[in-house]
């Protein structure tokens, strides 16, 4: 579906569409006849009423019509009607979002809506509020929220071309195993959400048919071009995943490199951009976009380089404490350093130089835990840090007590999170833009998701993270880096934050910020958004069943006042199937209820598809299996 300006020659057809849409609500012929003149569109008023049409991108059939009328700052949403057979498929939401975007660009501050009584709930769900003063119809008012400065900087005021080159980015820092390549392919789906409204998305794996339609419906997108299955060697990985074995082949070319090998696709994407938004900058992504980074711009992706930068910046930030880091040439030396830290009673953290999502990072708090950790590590070099004890200042803790070592890593007393992140970006001019602070869900050292929005991070902790994260961004900009970045923290004693690493790429939390920005713009309010990147499924779902189940689950979330956005749909038929989603709501209780609903429904799949002998088995592979 795409939205375009209406043409004078289609005035009669659009008038008929409006009347069909009105009739959908059960009005009789006499009532419709009385409305006919008011709802008839004339050819000479198309421009003055700023009439737009939603049309099928393939057939060109008109699916809906909307108008933005009046002069800024006060205007009217004059028409918004959808062809009856596609009501409920997101067409009306996309038209509404388009009108708000246009109003925002033209300086409108308020739009009045004289709504059909049957459409009041639709408008209220998108942020409009009832006001007195209407005539025969209920009157509502919507105030298009301003676009955030960081969104304008990130998109340059345009729709973007998203590249899910997760594996290509990671491979710059070390060879990936087949399992890591497979994981990066799944995670690359998040790149579709790396912009509030992309023009095109390119991904290495083949995604389920219907997934992009769900994204468009939930996020009011229009005319998004999807290019998937661009990692040719992943075909073998897919077969291996279904059989439970590992593929044994040469590493496939990275995503941007695969696109560059397709001249027609390269021309098409370049014709849509800039800006190109890769998951992370690589040589091929720079060649594709025409905006390569200078040599050394990614140096702070290294954990040791990041720690050195933190040490240099810390004296100007008294609320920040930086863990002491030591380099161990091999596992034996790492064992000696960790042993000394355990005997001193502090414990230690051992890391590889590069790693994502907590991979390559292990916490050692006891002698018993030392040996299995060392067996899991590569030979070296390795980084060993002091373990940062939990704790927050009593002013931040509701009961006045400091958190203990046994507290959950997700929620310390007083709702103070253990793991935080700052997200920001450096624009093409080298200006740093703060995006915000998020609370992360980390199990042991493995990242599982993040929550952004009002109240997700206590004000004092957020302020510390934003000041330090901005200072890091200034150093990155001076080093030639351009793009998204984040700084991860753990909470420490005395209300201080300890920075642990820098990620010079998009991340799971960044996607939550971006989805929040889109929902706030199109639905109004100040949303809480939670990303859940790994929800285990109780049974394997082929694509057809997966999309049908997601549609049903989306409706169930809507009933409780939440929004579900499926983010990782390619692992539902893996031997250990899982799903990634983002959930959004305007109040915490509904967000928590939505998470409980989704997790419960995911586990219920095991009972739905239970085999005859009572064990959980896969669904019949009637769809295109991933």
Please outline the helices and strands:
Layout (H helix, E strand, L loop, with lengths): L1 E4 L5 H13 L5 H11 L11 E5 L6 E10 L2 E9 L8 H16 L3 E5 L5 H6 L3 E2 L8 E4 L6 H7 L5 E3 L2 H6 L6 H10 L12 E3 L8 H9 L5 E3 L6 H10 L11 H6 L2 H10 L3 E3 L4 H7 L13 H11 L11 E4 L2 H13 L4 E4 L9 E4 L5 H7 L5 E5 L32 E8 L5 E12 L2 E7 L6 H20 L4 E9 L5 E7 L4 H16 L4 E9 L6 H17 L3 E6 L9 E8 L2 H21 L18
Parallel strand pairs: 4-5, 8-9, 8-11, 9-10
Antiparallel strand pairs: 1-2, 2-3, 3-4, 5-7, 6-7, 12-15, 13-14, 13-15, 16-17, 16-19, 17-18, 18-21, 19-20, 21-23, 22-23
Helix pairs in contact: 1-2
Query: How many whole angstroms does the radius of gyration measure?
Result: 26 Å
Structural class: alpha+beta
Low-confidence stretches are 233-248, 392-414, 611-626
Please give the share of residues in helix.
Answer: 25-40%
Which features would summarize this protein structure in a list?
seven-stranded mixed β-sheet; disordered C terminus; 626 residues
Quick description:
The protein has about 625 residues and is of the alpha+beta class. The protein contains 19 helices and 23 strands. It is elongated.
Polypeptide structure, described:
Mean pLDDT is 87; it is low at 233-248, 392-414 and 611-626. The two termini are 26 Å apart. The strands form 4 sheets. The chain has an 8-stranded antiparallel beta sheet, with helices on both faces. The protein is built from 19 helices and 23 strands. Helix content is 35%, strand content 21%. Helix 1 runs antiparallel to helix 2 (29-39). The chain has 626 residues and is of the alpha+beta class. A hairpin with a 6-residue loop joins strand 2 and strand 3 (62-71).
């Amino acid at each position: 579906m795409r939205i375009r300006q209406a043409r004078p020659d289609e005035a009669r057809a659009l008038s008929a569409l409006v009347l069909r849409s009105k009739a959908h609500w059960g009005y009789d012929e006499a009532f419709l006849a009385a409305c006919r003149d008011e709802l008839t569109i004339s050819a000479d008023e198309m421009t003055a009423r700023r009439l737009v049409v939603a049309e099928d991108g393939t057939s060109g059939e008109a699916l809906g019509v909307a108008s933005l009328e009046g002069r800024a700052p006060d205007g009217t949403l004059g028409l918004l009607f959808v062809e009856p057979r596609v009501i409920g498929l997101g067409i009306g939401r996309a038209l509404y979002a388009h009108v708000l975007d246009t109003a925002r660009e033209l300086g409108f501050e308020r739009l009045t809506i004289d709504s059909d009584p049957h459409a009041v709930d639709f408008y209220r769900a998108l942020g409009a509020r009832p006001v007195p003063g209407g005539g025969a119809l209920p009157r509502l008012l919507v105030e298009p929220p301003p676009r955030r400065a960081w969104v304008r900087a990130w998109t340059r005021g345009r729709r973007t071309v998203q590249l899910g080159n997760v594996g290509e980015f990671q491979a710059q820092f070390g060879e990936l195993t087949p399992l890591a390549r497979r994981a990066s392919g799944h995670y690359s789906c998040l790149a579709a959400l790396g912009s509030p409204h992309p023009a095109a998305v390119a991904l290495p794996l083949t995604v389920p048919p219907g997934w992009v339609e769900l994204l468009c419906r939930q996020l009011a997108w229009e005319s998004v071009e999807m290019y998937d299955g661009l990692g040719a060697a992943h075909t073998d990985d897919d077969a291996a995943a279904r059989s439970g074995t590992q593929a044994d082949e040469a590493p496939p070319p990275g995503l941007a490199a695969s696109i560059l090998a397709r001249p027609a696709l390269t021309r098409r994407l370049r014709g849509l951009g800039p800006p190109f938004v890769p998951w992370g900058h690589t040589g091929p992504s720079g060649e594709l976009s025409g905006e390569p980074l200078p040599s050394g711009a990614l140096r702070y992706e290294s954990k040791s380089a990041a720690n050195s930068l933190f040490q240099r910046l810390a004296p100007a930030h008294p609320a920040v404490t930086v863990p002491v880091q030591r380099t161990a040439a091999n596992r034996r030396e790492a064992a000696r350093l960790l042993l000394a830290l355990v005997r001193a009673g502090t414990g230690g953290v051992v890391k590889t130089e590069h790693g994502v999502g907590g991979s390559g990072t292990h916490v050692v708090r006891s002698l018993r835990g030392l040996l299995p950790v060392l067996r899991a590590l590569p030979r070296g070099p390795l980084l060993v840090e002091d373990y940062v004890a939990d704790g927050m200042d009593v002013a931040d803790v509701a009961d006045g007590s400091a958190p203990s070592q046994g507290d959950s890593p997700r929620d310390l007393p007083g709702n103070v999170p253990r793991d935080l992140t700052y997200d920001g970006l450096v624009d093409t001019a080298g200006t740093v833009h703060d995006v915000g602070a998020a609370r992360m869900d980390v199990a042991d050292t493995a990242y599982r998701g993040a929550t952004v929005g009002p109240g997700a991070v206590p004000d004092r902790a957020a302020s510390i993270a934003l000041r330090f994260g901005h200072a890091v961004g200034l150093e990155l900009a001076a080093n030639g880096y351009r793009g998204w970045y984040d700084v991860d923290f753990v909470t420490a004693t005395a209300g201080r934050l300890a920075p642990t690493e820098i990620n010079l790429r998009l991340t799971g939390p960044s996607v939550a910020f971006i989805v929040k920005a889109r929902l706030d713009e199109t639905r109004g309010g100040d949303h809480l958004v939670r990303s859940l990147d790994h929800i285990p499924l109780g049974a394997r779902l082929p694509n057809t069943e997966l999309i049908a189940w997601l549609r049903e689950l989306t409706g169930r979330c809507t009933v409780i006042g939440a929004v579900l956005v499926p983010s990782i749909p390619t692992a539902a038929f893996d031997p250990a199937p899982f799903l990634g989603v983002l959930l959004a709501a305007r109040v915490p209780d509904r967000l928590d209820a939505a998470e409980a609903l989704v997790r419960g429904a995911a586990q219920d799949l095991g009972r739905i598809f239970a085999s005859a002998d009572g064990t959980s088995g896969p669904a019949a592979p009637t769809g295109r299996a991933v």
